[in-house]
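Milestone M4 deliverable, item 7.
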Amino acid sequence: MEEIQKHFDQSGGDSLLSPGEYQGPLTVSRPCILDGAGSTLWAEHGPVLTITAPGVTIKNLRVEITGGRIQMAQRFNVPRRP
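Output delivered:
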């Protein structure tokens, strides 16, 4: 299993993951496109994925919490396109 944060930080731009499983957490702190290519990002406890930058697109990525009790917080501030 790869260290997803290290891989993402080293990519510097848009990222295309190889299909597989990646252990989180992952923090996305710059505008980019992250294409999971059908991969799974998981962690035993949340948050699994944190996005702190505008202009982030996540696609083809499954996000899972695999541990016992799940706490979920959602906050979306997505600007609408004209």
